[in-house]
Amino acid sequence: MKKSHLAFAGMVMVECLDVGLTTLSKAAMSGGMSHFVFVVYSNALATLILLPSSFIIHRNKRPPLTLSILCKFFLLSLAGITVMQNCVFTGVSYSSPTLASAMSNLVPAFTFFLAVIFRMEKLDLRNTRSQIKIIGTLVSISGALVVTLYKGAPLLSTPVQSTPDSSPSNTSSSTSMNNWVIGGLFLATASSCLAIWNTAQAAILKGYPSEMTIVSFYSLFGTIQCTILSLFFERNPSAWTLKPDIELVSIFYSAICGGVVTFSVQTWCIKEKGPVFVAMFKPLGIAIAAMLGAIFLGEELHVGSLIGAVVIVVGFYGVIWAQSKEEKELDLKTKEDGESQEDDEVDRLHSSSQKKPLLGSEVHV
């Protein structure tokens, strides 16, 4: 199987596992589990699985660890675990996995902004493709605002007749809308952190090409950081006691599928195909999240989520289309330059062979 096919299959699997994680975590937190405890336990278990394999299996293949590299791992885990994961699960607890999947489509837009700021992406305002990328980015952000600020009527549900005494219902609806907006803000913050994580990891992999070591220390430092954070925000000792039900299942699922498998596959795909390739699979999560949320959580898909998700996807694929066209042009230009250099080399060798005198033509007097 080609690497491109393997990367494609791997990212589809990652999106399915990621949506399954948000659905399970929502079910666990609805039962009273603290999301701070959830993040600590899941990353600690992932570290216990990853770290020994990094030192034992990849002992000879691993480049030497320096203080500079360890500091980069620490900052990577700060963005990708401590801030991102806590914001994701806080946002999911306030809203739903469907909103989390819709908001994750902001990652390509944020990644594009970061690439322009740090001059990793060329931006020419007179170029049509650059204009499409800018417009697509703004459209994606607009779609995220629609998803967050406009919930709308539920789809595929039976309309409820209004009653004279509707004030409790109105109060409940207002509270639900406030929670939806708060959840959207947390999820938008998580998307920005994920964009930073993708970009930073791509840069680190160029100088330290050992995926397993990066993922292992990433989980280790994330566990330490989240433990310190949780000690400040979760002061109830009973919250650290896990129940042998959905809480324990979600911890194991998060550690193995969300930690070991997802982190490893994403890191490998970023190394092989780049951060943009990893980001382009995010729209797939919306359909999966809506289906799993309806089946396992009994959630309804709302009009605002559908409209906003469509707007986000349109803007997202506009950016991806412009990016792919630029990459094809760059590959074609590189190929043409290579062929031109080969022709110049052949001409140079041919010219030098003509200038060199033949042995038989030399005359000795």
Radius of gyration: 26 Å
Silhouette: globular
Helix-strand pattern: HHHHHHHHHHHH
Helix content: over 70%
Task: Explain what the structure shows.
With 365 residues, the protein is mainly alpha-helical. Helices cover 77% and strands 0% of the residues. The chain has helices spanning 3-30, 35-56, 67-94, 97-103, 107-117, 128-149, 167-207, 211-233, 246-273, 275-279, 284-297, 303-355.
Topology readout:
Blueprint: H1 3-30, H2 35-56, H3 67-94, H4 97-103, H5 107-117, H6 128-149, H7 167-207, H8 211-233, H9 246-273, H10 275-279, H11 284-297, H12 303-355
What are the defining features of this structure?
365 residues; mainly alpha; 12 helices; 77% helix; 0% strand; disordered C terminus
Question: Summarize this, please?
Answer:
The protein is mainly alpha-helical. It has helices at residues 3-30, 35-56, 67-94, 97-103, 107-117, 128-149, 167-207, 211-233, 246-273, 275-279, 284-297, 303-355.
